[in-house]
Amino acid sequence: MIRQHIHFVTGRLAEPMLRRVVAPLAESAGFDYSIGVMGITVAALMTTDWLGPRLKIPQDATKLLIPGYCRGPVEGLSEKTGLPVERGPKDLRDLPEFFGKKQRSDYGAFDIEILAEINHALQLSLDEILRQAEALKRDGADVIDVGCNPGETWSGVGECVKALRDAGHRVSIDSFNPAEIEAAAGAGAELVLSVNSTNRDAARGWGCEVVAVPDKIGTLEGLQETLDVLDAAGVKARIDPVLEPIGFGFATSLRRYLESRRRWPDREMMMGIGNLTELTDCDSAAINVVLLGFCQELSIKSVLTTQVIPWARTSVRECDLARRLVHYAVACRSLPKHVEPRLVMLRDPRPHRPTPEELGELAGRIKDNNYRVFVAADGLHLVSSGMDLAGSDPFDLFEELLSRQPRNLDASHAFYLGYELAKAVTAMTLGKDYRQDEALDWGFLTRGETPHREKP
Q1: What DSSP letter does each residue of 19-73 carry, written as one string?
Q2: Cβ proximity of 319 and 114 under 8 Å
Q3: Paired sense of beta strands 379-384 and 372-376, if any
Q4: Rounded to whole angstroms, what are the CA distances from 274 to 21, 82, 178, 240?
Q5: pLDDT given at position 103
Q6: pLDDT per residue over 31-77, tens digit each?
């Protein structure tokens, strides 16, 4: 088998770091390499058209690797060189991961169903209910749960369920009121939340599955009796022992789920997770992952979630990603780590922090007066030709820059630097990766940016 020879292409500024990264990588990954340093300071400014006539490639090269930021089609380069051409990562420090990354073809499966509740639906217009339902479905909801108000009978519940069904949604009804439930079931609702001794006798006429809950919250009282009545009537049922908030029996309620699985090993079960995500001062993503992990291990195949309070406003999307992560972990007996980066939002798994020495060396090699912003191990750095300003306060950095009376700092450039420094401070504060001219990575919440250099 012929040993692969990869020809790396870079600019003058990145050459020293590229050599430091590639040398040990080539040895560990088992390939030969060469590095072509182009006559351009910043590799990110290259295009494939510009590269074509300037490339000088060793005869024994078997592959060409160009910078991730290099714009333009690679087909022309491949035709010119006769070699396969591939873009590397945007940050060369990610090359080890780029070469060692394993494709997880088995990732993405799930078997937990998400019910997403539209709270107090009777207070909303039908158009608003349909709009919310479509958004919830787009985020990963399998069933739209129509939330009713306790103590009231909603005369329009049947019309609401029919409209949702006509729009292609699966629907459940969240009510104890037999009159509301009968109308909803008649219009196509497939699941009723919830049933206990107060309404179980009426369930035989609804023609749909129900969720059986205890008669007394905090116990399993009456649950077996309700299941017996439903079984005798031929009504399909799943169990929800009811999750309680922290401080009101949370740990004990988890024990009830464990006890329920022991008592009824073959019963379908459900967990309503909003009592934790909506009622805890904490971003909801991590809570959702832990709770869905608990459900996966206990074969609890459905969860009910809401996304009302601001810190839980993306719970459905979080649950959709979490159910895939926990399924992978349990099915493959593999830690749920370095698998689903979209759920790591507040902080980054591996922020890059150049050393002050590296940035000082960079400032000595830069020949132009453009400004580079970095988050380094010791704080913020503003780097240009022969200049490396460091500090933790962007206002101080800007004042120091102004004291040098730069000639290239107009209002537009000052605005741009202010924007980039604001992102850099955020990254420094939270422990996130910062790359100038790129959006900060907020997992699945990331909003992309058009790089400043690509704007007209």
Answers
A1: HHHHHHHHHHHT-EEEEEE-S-S-GGG-BHHHHGGG----TT--EEEE-TT-BS-
A2: yes
A3: antiparallel
A4: 46, 58, 24, 13
A5: 46
A6: 999 999 988 877 777 888 888 888 989 989 999 999 888 888 888 88
Q: Do strands 113-118 and 143-147 pair parallel, antiparallel, or not at all (unpaired)? A: parallel
Helix, strand, coil: what percent of the chain each, to 5?
45, 15, 40
Assign 171 to helix, strand or coil.
Answer: strand
Domain ranges, residue 193: 113-343
Encoded tokens for 430: 């939270």
Residues with Cβ < 8 Å from 266, sequence gap 6 or more?
none
The pLDDT tens digits for 174-185 are 999 999 999 999
Tokens of 326: 């926990």
The H or E element spanning position 141 is none
Residue 108 in any domain: the answer is: no
CB neighbours (10 Å) of residue 169?
Answer: 20
Shared-domain flag, residues 62 and 143: no
CATH number at residue 72: 3.40.50
Rg of the Cα atoms in the chain: 29
Q: Are 57 and 29 in contact (CB under 8 A)?
A: no
Q: What is the mean pLDDT of the chain?
A: 92
Cα(387)–Cα(304) distance, rounded to whole angstroms?
Answer: 56
